[in-house]
Amino acid sequence: MKENYTDQIKGVYDSARRWISLEIEYAKLTAAEKITVLLSTLILGAVCLLLGMVILILFSFSLVNVFKMFLSPVWAYLSVGGLLVLLILLIILLRRPLLENPISRLISKLILDIKPRDNEQK
Fold this sequence. Notes:
It is a single chain. By secondary structure, the chain is mostly helical. Helix content is 87%, strand content 0%. It is built from 3 helices and no strands. The chain has helices spanning 2-68, 73-93, 95-112. α1 (2-68) packs antiparallel against α2 (73-93).
């Protein structure tokens, strides 16, 4: 009878070790998936930021050329520079809804794995 209990305890111990190792593997796979999503989002954001800067420079020079038709070149460059300063100030003032909230939502959704709730409770 003692052997029966010992075998049962060994079986429970082996099952617990296997379950823990499977949970660790699942955690590793989940972490790898989340890191992959985060890094791909960061890389996509960096590429879009770089392309956006190039586009902004090109639009700025074209706007300067438009302003040169009405103003002297010095005033055209100064007015485009002033518009860019106003754009930067607007981005700084709206940084929470434009930058902080979407980034925090992405990271919290990624880390906490928040899934939408079903309206029907069973």
